[in-house]
Amino acid sequence: MQTQRLRIAIQKKGRLSKECQELLKRCGVKFTMVGERLVVHAENMPIDLLLVRDDDIPGLIMDGVVDLGVIGENELEEVCLERIARSEPANYVKLRRLDFGGCRLSIAINKGDTYNGPQDLQGKRIATTYPQLVKRYMDEQGVQFSTCMLNGSVEVAPRAGLADAICDLVSTGATLEANGLKEVEVILRSKAVLIQRTGDFCYDKQALINRLLTRMQGVIQAKE
Ligand code: PRT
Ligand code: ZN
Questions:
Q1: ipTM tops the 0.95 cut
Q2: 1, 76, 147, 154: least CB-packed within 10 angstroms?
Q3: What is residue 2's predicted lDDT score, i.e. its pLDDT?
Q4: CA of residue 14 to ligand 1 center, whole Å
Q5: What local confidence, expressed as pLDDT, does residue 190 receive?
Q6: Which domains does the chain have, with CATH numbers?
Q7: What's the predicted TM-score (pTM) here?
């Protein structure tokens, strides 16, 4: 169901939501967040904001349910690999990389363990929320491993005896430090990105996207 209004999916609550809302506001989109609403209508442009869990954003784009979305590259690439593995549509257009949400997806092991390279992970169990990205990396390295899939508390898995290593997002490194872990490999460097569904847009929608992109360019450059 195509609507005339441009649909943009953004994270409802979390590390990307504040900066994402700020960016849209600086681009001149006027809106007010009200309670637990899923859809927020912009007041001055034909734009609807869809407020969802970040995990849902890549799929909403790849299924063509929304027109634009803002998502971390880590989540985007994981979902993409997952959908390819299930033979589901996994297409999208990356419009631009944004200047927030920076982090890296890294493998970490117990501080006391020695490490000379990926081959030291041979036969080990790795706890992660990103099994597809870990598999891609380990396949590239030709190293066999097993997975321990966790959607939270990944950093406690080695201490709890659930895994030998972890692969998780890192920004300052404080969480690894607090859990007696050390970062040994960076497998992905990630930032928030603006993505678009594939397929055609009506003239007005395309013109609105172009206008938003031009403004975004200006907003981001002004900050640099
Ligand atoms: O509820 P919802 O599903 O929408 O949110 P979420 O809990 O899945 O995601 P959220 O809000 O935590 O993160 C959203 C996105 O922010 C991620 O997908 C990344 O693209 C980006 N991002 C940037 C981060 C971090 N930095 C980050 N440091 N996401 C998570 N972390 C976590 C990390 O998992 C670890 O637990 O912060 C901890 C490490 O931080 P340091 O500073 O101690 O290294
Ligand atoms: Zn999430």
A1: yes
A2: 1
A3: 58
A4: 8
A5: 98
A6: 6-101+191-223 (3.40.190.10), 103-189 (3.40.190.10)
A7: 0.97
